[in-house]
Amino acid sequence: MKQPDKKQKIIEAATELFLHSGVRRTTLSKIAEKAGIGKGTIYYYYEDKTQILMDCYMRHVNQMRSKAFAELQQESDVLVRLRSILGYLSAEVHQDPFVSTLFEEYKEFRLAEIEKCFVQSEEAAVQLIGSLIREGQQQGHYAQVPLPLTAFMLVKMIFSYELDYPKTEQSDQDLKQLLRHMLRKRPAD
Fold first, then answer.
1. pLDDT at residue 189, as a whole number
2. Taking the model in full, what pTM does it have?
3. Concatenated DSSP letters of 123-180
């Protein structure tokens, strides 16, 4: 019973430190101190700070996405669900404090450990988007596009747009229009 408690303490302490101090200023010693455990105990559960960060990040992202997407399960229109999920993924980097903190630190320093988190998060998003595209194809709403490549490109496009593109209100509208027309089945399909 004590082992899960210690791991949970590590996760909670590390998440709080990553959120408030950033990845660069968070050390294993600080995590151990905040968790109220010895630094050696951390190595029982994790090899390094990157593993802790990835665990904290994916737990957080999966929990937040599950909450956000749960209400969409009631929506029968796959087009609405896909647009909502892509919109959520786009907004996630700005509206979620934990994700936003890591995103801003990554933009400034391009830390490899944060990039690993984003890659893992993107992989989960690609699976979700791919299943929605497949469902839309089965319902006759979407063109027959190659999967998982199309899902991968959509997710990459969203994350790259948020990370690298100089955004304006017009560019946000243009992105929404692009997404709206990208997969729609045309009469000749």
1. 55
2. 0.86
3. HHHHHHHHHHHHHHHHTT-B----TTHHHHHHHHHHHHHHHHS---HHHHHHHHHHHH
